[in-house]
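Dear colleagues,

I hope this message finds you well. In preparation for our joint manuscript, I am sending the PAN2-PAN3 deadenylation complex catalytic subunit PAN2 (Electrophorus electricus) sequence together with its predicted structure, so that both groups work from identical material. I would be grateful if you could confirm receipt.
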Amino acid sequence: MNFEGLDPGLGEYSPGLHGSLEPGLESSLDSRLDPALLQGVDLNPDAMAVPVSESVHLLEGMYSELHSVAAEVGIPVTSAHFDLQEELLWMGNHRGHASSFFGPTMGRYSSFQVHLTDDIRHMQSMDTGIVFLTKSNLKCLTRGGLVMFDYPMEEGADMHSLLLTDNNTLLLGGLQNYVAEVDLNTVQETQKFTVEVPGVAIMRQSSRFFFCGHTSGKVSLRDLRTFKLEHEFDAFSGSLSDFDVHGNLLAACGFSSRGLGGLSCDRFLMVYDLRMMRAVTPLQVHVDPLFLRFIPTYTSRLAIISQTGQCQFCEPTGLASLADVFHVNTVGQLLMSFDVSSSKQALAFGDSGGCVHLWSSAPEVSFNDYSRETELVLPCLVDSLPELDWNHELVPLSLVPLPLTSTEPLLSDWPSNLATPSPRRAPPVDPEILRMMKTVGFIGYAPNPRTRPRNQVPYKIKEVELEYDSYNQVPESPIGRDEEPHLYMVPKKYRKVTIKYSKLGLEDFDFKHYNRTLFAGLEPHIPNAYCNCMIQVLYFLEPIRCLVQNHLCQKEFCLACELGFLFHMLDLSRGDPCQASNFLRAFRTIPEASALGLILADSDEQTGKARLGRLIQSWNRFILTQLHQETQEQEGPQAYRGTSSSALGSTGESVIGRLFGCEVENSSLCRCGKETVRSSLTLLFTMHYPDGDFTEKVVQEYDFTEILKKSICLEQSTQAWCENCEKYQPTVQTRNIRCLPDVLVINCEVNSFKEAEFWKAQAEYAFNKALKKEATEPPKPKEPLDELGGVEGLTFDTCAEDMRHVWIPLCIRMRISKTHGLEVCSRPEAEEVRPHSEEEAGAAVVYDLVVTVPHILDARTGGNLVAHIKVGETYHQRKEGVTHQQWYLFNDFLIEPIDKTEAAQFDVSWKVPAIIYYAKRNYHSKYDLRIKNPIEASVLLTEASLARKQRKSHATFIPLMVSEMPQPGDLVGLDAEFVTLNQEEAELRSDGTKSTIKPSQMSVARITCVRGQGTNEGVPFIDDYISTQEQVVDYLTQYSGIKPGDLDAKISSKHLTTLKSTYLKLRFLIDTGVPKSVKRQYVLKDQVIDTVYLFHMPRKRMISLRFLAWYFLDLNIQSETHDSIEDARTALQLYRKYLELSRAGQDEFRKVLKGLYEKGRKLDWKVPESDSTDGQGSPKGAAAFSSVLGL
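The corresponding C-alpha cells are as follows:
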C-alpha cells in the first residue's frame, strides 16, 4: 500500500490515548459518566482504562470518548445507527424502544416505541424516515415518531438483517431459507430469493456483489440483479460474527468449532482478495473480535471490537500492534451493538446496561460530510406588549389597557344558559375492580385488571349520549368488544382459574366454592399443568384407570406407574384437589416429550404464548403412544392383571392397543401401476378438512360423519419413491381400516382461521336444519331424563336453540362392509342397538360421545384448556353411591355438571375444539376391571443405594426384618425434609401487604421412619435421601440438614434412592391400614398425627418442634442443623407425652397448653441456651414435616 505524500506525524500516536497500557497512571472513572449507573457494580480497578486527559491534543485519525448517555438503564442496546441524512445517532433496545440523539453533545431528540415486545435488530435511515426491523415486523417511522408504514412478515419468520439497495428496495434476511425483497414505494413484497444455506444474519453491498453472511460461518457473493450465487467463502467452522467489505478486500470475524459442539472466538481475522477470489494471510489480533468495520480515512484501517469493550485498529494486510488497543469504558457491561458514521469521524457503541458511547477523532465532530439541517422543536414564544415612551408627545394613550368599569353587557358576552359548565361524567368503575377492592380507611386498593390501555378511558361518542346509569358491561361499539372480549365471550366457569394464596398457603382457600362434587380436581400452579384436562380424561376411562393402577415396573421414570399413583389419589379423594407434580416430574424427563416441544417454559405458560390447542393434541398422541410402549414392555407376574395370557402373548399387544388401536392398511399406487401395501397400528385419527377458501360467503355443506370418514379413510397424492421406476414419482396414497377401535380418538386440528371458519359455517348449517325440523314437528314436553337420576336444574330434552354452535353428533354408527368399506352416519342417541358379536361381519357399531376437550380463547388470561367428560356409572357408584351417567366440566380444580349439548357446542370465537373421544356402548364388558394392589411387603426390605461412595459402615438405619413388618395399629415416627426447586413469586401491593403469585416449588429430599414399638423402638428402618435430576435453587440446609452433593449419586455418601422407591415404601405403610381419605402428600388424615396440631390452640400460632421438645421433653434439638432421625424420634416421644397428658382430662390439658403459650411469649419462642444458633426455632412448614404414622 502506498503511503507517500502523507504527513509523517499521523503515525505518531499519543501515549495518552492508550492510558490503560501506560504504567504509573492511577485508574479512575470518566467524570462525564452518570454516577447513578455505577450503583451496585463491582469494578476491578486493575482492568479499567484511564480516561483521556483534557489537555491531550487529539490527532486526526485517532479516536477517544466524547460523550456517553444512558437511554434506558438496564435495557440492552441491541442496535446503533448513525443517520445518513442528519446529525442524529439512533439506538434501539431489547424492549422495542428507539431513541435519537442530536450532534456530539448527545442531546435527546426523539424517543418512541417501535414494537411492544420484540427487540430492534436493525435500523436504516432514509430521506423520509427511519426503517426498523424486528423479529417479525418491518416498520418505518418519521424522525419524530409518526408511523409511515407497518409491514408484518410471514408467520414463523425470524428476521435479523436488512439492506437498502440502490433502486429503493429493501432486502430482508433472517434464519429462514430465503431473502425477501420489499419495494418501499408500494410497501409490497416483490420477490423472494431462495438461499442455499439458511440463516442470513448480515448483508453488505459493493459495486459488484451482494454479500450475505450466514450463521453457519459462510459468506456468499451474489449477483446484484438476479441474486444468483457467484462465489462462496467458508470463513469459519463454527459461526460468523461480523464482516465488512472495502474495495477489493473482505474481512470477517467469527467462531470456530471445538469439541462436543462448543464454539470459541477465533482471534484470526479471515481476509479475502475479491479480485482473485481467494484468502490472503489471516490477520491475528489481540482481542476477541465481535464487530469489525473498515474505516478508510487515509488507509484501509480495520476497527475490531470485542464484547468486553476492547477496540483495536490495524491494517488488513499488516501485523496488528498491541499499542493500537484501547478500551471503551462500559463500567462492566458488555457491548451489544456498534456503528461507524459515514464521515468516519465518529464511532458509536451500545452496551447491555442501556448506555450509548460516542467516540470521535476530533472535538468538533460531524456525522456526515453534508448533513441537512435538523428540525428542532421551537421554544414557546409569548407575544409581549410594546414599550411606550412616556416622554414622547405623540404617544396615544389609547394603547394603555384599562380595566372595564362599566356594567353594560359586551358584544362578546355569551348567554348564561350557554356558558354553564357541563363536564362529561366519568364512566362507572370496572366491576372486577370493585369485586377485588380492599378498603383501608377511606382508600380502596385493587389490582389492575388490565382490561384497557393505561391512562385511557373509552367514551361513547354519539349524538344523543346515553345515561351512564344504564351503562352495560358489554361495550356497544365493536372496537370496545375487541378491547374486552372476556367480558362478553367467555363464561365465568370456563375462564382460567387461579389460586389466591395467603399467609397459610392453601389452608384457607375455599376449593368447595369451585367444586361441590366428590370428584377430585387438579391444581394448576405447577409447571406444565396444561395437561390436567387430559389426565382427567384418562382417569375416567375405566380400562385405563385399572391398567395403570395394576401396573408396576422397575423404571425410575415410568408414566404408567406415575399415572397409577395419581389415579390412586383421585380414587381416595372426596372432593379435595390433588397435584400431578410427580407425574409431571417424570414427564419432563422423557426425551420424546422434550423433542416434541411438549415441555413448556414458565414464561410461555404465564404470558399465554403457547398454542395450547395444538399442544394438547400433540400431548394426546404422545401419551397414548408412551403408555402403549410402557405397558407393552411389561411381562411376567407384574403384567396387567385384567387380561388373559393370550391377549398379552408374544404379539406384544397392550390394553392401550386393544382400547384405542385400529389396524390400518396403507397402499401407495404409482402411476406406473406399482402398488405397495403395508399394515400398521394407529391409536388416533386426525381430522382433514376439504381444501378451499372458507372465508367466502358460500361454503359447501358437509356432515360431520362425512368429514370423519374421509379423515379415517384418507386419500391424498404425494411424491414418493417407486422401486419400479427407481425415482420419486407422483403416487396416490390410500388408507383403509380393517377393524373398529373400542374408543375412537380424534384430533380436530382446528389450528388456524381457515379451519375455524369451516367449523363455524358447518355449525350454522346444522343449526338451520334443526330450526326447520323443529318447525315441522310438534313440540315435545321438556322432562328430566330418568336414567340420569333427575339431576336438579338440568333438563336434557334437546330443542333447536340448544343446537346452536353444535356440529358434532352425540352418537354415531360405524360399520365396515365388504362392498362399501367404512360407513359412518349419525343417529339419535336414545335409539337402541341390537347387540352383535365381535365376529359378526358387517355389524353396525354405535359410538357415544364421551369426551370433548376445547381450547378456551381468553385475551385476558392467555387462554386455557378444559374437558367435558361423560362420567360413567361406576364412578358415581364409588363416590356418591348412586348409579347414573352425567356430563361434567373439568377446569383444573373447578368441576361442574353440565348439559350434554353444552359438551358438543363450540363457539369458535372463544371455544375451539381440540380433541374428541367416541366410545362403543358397553365396551367395558370386554375388560377385567378388578384392581389388585401391586405393592408388596418386599419394598421395605434391603435395597442398594444409588450413591457410588455409600458404604455399609455409614448406614444410618436398619431395615425391617420379615418378623418386624408393621401391623394395623402400629406406630411409626416419620420426618420429611424438603429442598426448593423454584423460589416463590410474590408482589407487593400498594397498601404494603404481600401477595403470593406463585408459591415456591418444593421437592422431598429425605424421608426417615423410625420404629414406634418393640425392643428397637426409635431405631430408623427408612432413611432415604431422594435423588433428583432437577436443579435445586435452595437446599434450606439450616432447616433441612441437606447439603449440596447429598442428592448427587456421583459424590453423595448417603443412602440415595429414587422418589418412586421411597413412595412405594410409604404407600405400603399407608395401605396396611384402612384407607378413608387422602391428603396431597399421599398420606391419610386419620393415620397421620402431626405434632404441630397436637399442641396447638385455636387461632394461635404454630409452635416449632424444637420448642416443644425443650418444653415437654427437656431436649435440645436442632442446635446447629436439623437431623431427620432426631426429629422423627422427637415426634414419637411428643406423641407419647400427649397421650400421658390427655389421660388427666381436657381441662387439665388445656391448662398445660396455656402454660406452654405463656412461656413461649415470655421467651419470644426462643429456646434459652447460650450457644444457640437457631434463634426462632425451625420453620418446619417450609422445609420439614414431622409426624407420627398410625397404621
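For the figure legend, we might mention the following. The chain is about 15% helix and 25% strand. Residues 873 and 883 are 5 Å apart (CA to CA).

With kind regards,
E.M.
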